[in-house]
């Protein structure tokens, strides 16, 4: 069996591994680390020798992690996070925050609604932090947090894990969205059901509207579905279709595209807006600051009722 002494391993190799995994290419990893691409390639060769695995396979779009890399990733990320947290103990809060990148997982409805607001607040209060927005939703967020794919997760619905910190921020409601028309009329329950619908759903088949209608022995015609709220303006154009979505997303889309909002004519349950993070990040001043700023911007959203 191959034996390794940690004293013989350059621990900087793990920073290269992290950069390669997250950037998906040696060129981008080199830019991120501030070294040459040849130095990254040399480090990858040494990593391959240490772990006895190719670690990353070349594809037409860059480097794809192997199964061994996927297994290593959360372990390496946890080790590097512990090192960073240890260094923070020797720094003042400002120094611990400067130069940090904080990854926030959320679906694109939140990115549309709070992205710019949050960027502006961070620029004002902590200009040394770089925000990284990553796509997720409530069914994936807990696992992604535990696998250290991002630092925080903002979701519609609970972050389900006893090993994660979580905070209920607010509840939200729903609004209907159609293509902008000069002769638009108020939606009634009858006219709403007569229209064709565009569904936004991670699964693609059933949404909260369908669940509510089914309880009343009613149904609607879904013409198409998408996983991204940002696609709605294009999908609604030149049609009489309607989409039902969180008010914060509907208002954000109406402010930047040729669509208009309508009150939802059926009663839908409010949904929770929650924030999750790993417990081991609880003392991180950068994470604490971003949590505070997210709470502030969520409170500004239309249709939300702040909890607590």
From TrEMBL:
UniProt key word Transcription: yes
SUPFAM superfamilies in alphabetical order: Periplasmic binding protein-like II, Winged helix' DNA-binding domain
Alphabetically ordered keywords of this record: DNA-binding, Transcription, Transcription regulation
A Pfam family per the record: LysR_substrate
Family matches, as InterPro entries: LysR-type_TF (IPR050389), LysR_HTH_N (IPR000847), LysR_subst-bd (IPR005119), WH-like_DNA-bd_sf (IPR036388), WH_DNA-bd_sf (IPR036390)
Domain HTH lysR-type per the UniProt entry, residue ranges: 9-66
Family from the record: Belongs to the LysR transcriptional regulatory family.
The protein's name: LysR family transcriptional regulator
The species this protein was found in: Pseudomonas asiatica
């Amino acid at each position: 069996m191959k034996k390794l002494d940690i004293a013989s391993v350059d621990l900087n190799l793990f920073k290269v591994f992290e950069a390669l995994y997250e950037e998906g290419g040696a060129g981008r990893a080199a830019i991120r680390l501030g070294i040459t691409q040849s130095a990254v390639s040399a480090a990858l060769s040494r990593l391959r020798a240490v772990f006895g695995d190719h670690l990353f396979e070349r594809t037409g779009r860059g480097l794809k992690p192997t199964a061994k890399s996927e297994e290593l990733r959360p372990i390496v990320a946890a080790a590097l996070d512990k090192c960073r947290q240890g260094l923070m103990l020797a720094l003042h809060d400002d120094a611990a925050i400067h130069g940090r990148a904080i990854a926030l997982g959320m679906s694109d409805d939140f990115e549309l609604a709070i992205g710019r607001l949050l960027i502006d607040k961070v620029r004002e209060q902590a200009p040394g932090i770089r925000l990284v927005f990553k796509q997720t939703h409530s069914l994936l967020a807990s696992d992604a947090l535990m696998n250290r794919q991002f630092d925080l997760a903002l979701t519609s619905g609970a972050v389900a894990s006893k090993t994660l910190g979580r905070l209920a921020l607010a509840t939200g409601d729903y609004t209907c969205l159609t293509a902008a028309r000069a002769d638009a009329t108020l939606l009634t329950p009858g006219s709403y059901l007569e229209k064709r619908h565009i569904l936004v759903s991670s699964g693609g088949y059933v949404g909260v509207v369908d669940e509510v209608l089914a309880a009343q022995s009613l149904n609607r015609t879904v013409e198409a579905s998408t996983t991204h709220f940002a696609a709605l303006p294009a999908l609604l154009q030149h049609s009489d279709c309607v989409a039902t979505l969180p008010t914060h997303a509907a208002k954000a889309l109406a402010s930047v595209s040729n669509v208009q909002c309508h009150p939802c004519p059926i009663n839908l349950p409010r949904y929770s807006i929650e924030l999750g993070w790993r417990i081991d990040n609880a003392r991180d001043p950068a994470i604490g600051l971003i949590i505070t700023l997210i709470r502030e911007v969520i409170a500004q959203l239309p249709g939300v009722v702040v909890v607590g």
